[in-house]
Every structure is written in structure tokens, then in C-alpha cells.
Amino acid sequence: MYWTLELASYLSDAPWPANKDELIDYAIRTGAPLEVVENLQAIEDEEEEIYESIQEIWPDFPTEEDYLWNEEEY
Asked: Is the distance from CB of 25 to CB of 12 less than 8 angstroms?
């Protein structure tokens, strides 16, 4: 299983919170690449675990804090 920003972007508008099956269904319905569906299927699901955001699936997903952007300057 591997994630990239491009692949993770297909889940940015997913109906969070969601379980694994709901995310797979969403990815298929929205026409996400096969790699996204395969990555979701590779997740080890523990009793219908509910995911609150992409960060729970891909912990390395960059957040706004990861960018060196100072809003006060602009």
C-alpha cells in the first residue's frame, strides 16, 4: 500500500467519518484510480473501524502546519 498526494486527494471530499467499505464505495463512485481502491482494500479493518479523516488512513498526509506559510505576512 502506498499513498501519494494525488491519490489521497481523491478522498478529500469523502463523507467523513466513514468506515472502510464506505470509503471504497465512495472511491468507486467518484471514479478514483484503481490504486486508491486497492489501498483502501489493503487497510486492516478492525470491527468496522470508523475513520475521521485521511490522516487516520495515511498518517503522513501533509496538513497546513506542514507548509511554511505565514498568513500574517499576506
From this structure: no
- Bridge-partner residues for 19, per DSSP? 50
pLDDT tier, 71 (very low <50, low <70, confident <90, very high otherwise): low
Q: Tell whether pTM > 0.90.
A: no
**Every domain of the chain and the residues it spans:** 5-73
The Cα 6–Cα 13 span in angstroms is 13
Buried b (16+ CB within 10 A) or exposed e, 42-62: ebeeeeeeebeebeebbeebe
